[in-house]
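Good morning C.,

I know you're traveling, so I'll keep this short. The sequence:
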Amino acid sequence: MTAITQLLESLPEEERIILTMRYIRGLSNLEIADLLGVPERAVESVITTGKSRLLSALNQG
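The tokens, ready to paste straight into the viewer:
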């Protein structure tokens, strides 16, 4: 398992799913929002929080 995979798996499920959809599957925020049935702003918020957690974990390790 790569370090990035380990970091992603350490995130809360919602953040992991949305970040994977965005950065690995390449979906837009709007596409993710439509698929999950949530507002686009919610997706943006989760992405911001998830990226912050990942950066913090990278800086600690």
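Safe travels,
E.
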